[in-house]
Amino acid sequence: MQIHHIGYLVKKINKAIPAFENLGYKMESDIVFDEYRGIDICFMTKEHYRVELVCPKSKDSVVYELQKKYGNSPYHICYICENIEDEVEKLRDSGYVKYDEPHEAIAFSNKKVCFLIHPYLGMIELLEENE
Ligand code: NI
């Protein structure tokens, strides 16, 4: 599976963006509010790397506790797959469990994503791209 991005928790997205720009990252998308996950989100790229800045907007956000625990920190790598249900099924045999159900993500033009947890690897994200 190809890597799509590295997910990065940030406390203040408007402060994080110029900090990444200082290191040579460029904005790839505007900041989008994802209501389902309660986050502001944007993508930045440097060479062939892409980071996804994720900023919880309230205590109800699914990543609020993670951000409190980890501070400003990378927290998942996202992999591209062709069929999310098939891939989840395969990864289950390798010890992954679903962190949430596959759902459409506004930041990806409503392509499907799903988060999984592995006991010795932590969190990964799957992004379905099948065109
Ligand atoms: Ni992500």
In short:
With 131 residues, this protein is an alpha+beta fold. The chain has helices at 13-22, 64-70, 84-92; strands at residues 3-9, 26-27, 32-34, 39-46, 49-56, 73-81, 97-98, 103-105, 111-118, 122-128. It is built from three helices and ten strands, in the order βαββββαβαββββ.
Proportion in β-strands: 35-45%
Gyration radius, rounded: 14 Å
Number of helices: 3
Which molecules other than protein and nucleic acid are bound?
nickel (II) ion
Please summarize the sheet with the most strands.
10 strands, mixed
> Gap between N and C termini, in Å?
15 Å
What share of the residues lie within helices? 10-25%
- One letter per element, helices H and strands E, the order comes to EHEEEEHEHEEEE
The overall average pLDDT, rounded, is 95
Unreliable stretches covering 5 or more consecutive residues: none
Tell the overall outline. globular
- The counted number of beta strands is 10
Give a description of the structure.
Strands 1, 2, 3, 4, 5, 6, 7, 8, 9 and 10 form a ten-stranded mixed sheet that branches. The protein is α+β, with helices and mostly antiparallel strands. The chain has helices at about 15-20, 65-70, 85-90, and strands spanning about 5-10, 25, 30-35, 40-45, 50-55, 75-80, 95-100, 105, 110-120, 120-130. It is about 20% helix and about 45% strand. β9 (about 110-120) and β10 form a beta hairpin. Bound molecules: nickel (II) ion.
